[in-house]
Write a structure and sequence with these properties.
about 0% strand, mainly alpha, 5 helices
């Protein structure tokens, strides 16, 4: 899983250089945005809201090169809204990224 954190870190460094304060702010913004989308997923009650939150999460992860989470989102597209197992997997992946 450190590979994924490496992707996030490498994407941030490529985008803004080696400015520790800016890197910290962007990393925090990514994590907060991803957490917000996962929260929306947990509250989704229909296919439309489920897929909209997945689409946003996938775009966010794509912008930051977080390939593992993109793969999870792809899997989630084939599950029912609010799928508890998928939500746990997405939260777990985000937790790993937050500790790197």
């Amino acid at each position: 899983m450190s590979y994924e954190g490496g992707n996030l870190n490498a994407s941030l460094v490529a985008a803004v250089g080696d400015d520790p304060a800016l890197l910290h702010d962007l990393r925090r913004a990514f994590l907060e945005s991803a957490d917000r989308q996962i929260d929306l997923l947990s509250r989704a009650t229909d296919d439309s809201s489920w897929h909209l939150a997945l689409w946003r999460l996938k775009g966010l992860c794509g912008s930051f090169g977080v390939v593992h989470m993109i793969a999870l989102v792809d899997e989630a597209e084939h599950t029912a809204p609010g799928d508890a197992k998928m939500l746990r997997r997405l939260r777990s992946a985000l937790t790993v990224l937050s500790v790197d």
